[in-house]
Amino acid sequence: MGHGASHVDKIVGAMRTPSEHGYSLPDSTREKVIDTLGHYRYAMARVQLEESSDEDNRTVQAIYQVNAGNAVAIGRIQFNGNSRLPGRFLRRELQAGEGEVFDTVNLGQSLERLNKSNQLEEVRRTDVSLKFNEETKLLDVSFKVTE
Questions:
Q1: Rounded distance between C-alpha atoms, residue 30 and residue 32, angstroms
Q2: In terms of domains, do 16 and 49 share one?
Q3: 144, 129 in Cβ contact below 8 A?
Q4: How is 78-99 classified by DSSP, letter by letter?
Q5: Per-residue pLDDT of the chain (147 residues; tens, 9 = 90+)
Q6: pTM across the whole model
Q7: Which of 38, 67, 96 is the last residue of a domain?
């Protein structure tokens, strides 16, 4: 994972310090690890969280199993829910295209650009579906949009 590993260590290491946190901290940390790995082009990273709590001592132990996977190129890009705007207009707003290596920074910037276009209702990260195509060995990206 190279530089990505040191960033993951910093994210998880911040949890080691005893302090008052809600129960959502381990899961939000898991999401940060996934985002960090995505930044380093590990789009298919899987981070499994195993938690155990000790109510008497008011502690939670979080164990993360990280499988970064491999960097993957973007395959097919599609926009679901779009009938009025030409696909080429929407693709123009994307920071990466088909055949380029996927990373979450480009995805975030693409969402910002789509939203600034004022041609669609707000597109959120939850409106984006990533699916690894076993046949092509590429990452297909689908945007759910509302005009």
A1: 5
A2: yes
A3: yes
A4: EEET-SSS-HHHHHHT-SS-TT
A5: 555 667 677 766 666 555 555 567 777 888 888 888 877 878 778 888 888 878 887 777 778 888 888 889 999 999 999 888 888 889 999 999 999 999 888 999 999 999 999 889 999 999 999 999 999 999 999 999 988
A6: 0.67
A7: 67
Our separate counts of H helices and E strands in the chain read 4, 5
**Residue linked to tokens 């001592």:** 57
Using CA of residue 82, residue 83, residue 86, residue 87, what is the dihedral sign? positive
- Between CA 81 and CA 111, with CA 133 as vertex, the angle to 5 degrees is 40
CA 77/CA 143 separation, integer angstroms: 8
Exposed, middle or buried by CB within 10 Å (0-12, 13-18, 19+), for 62? middle
Whether residues 98 and 133 fall in one domain:
yes
Q: What is the DSSP letter of 1?
A: -
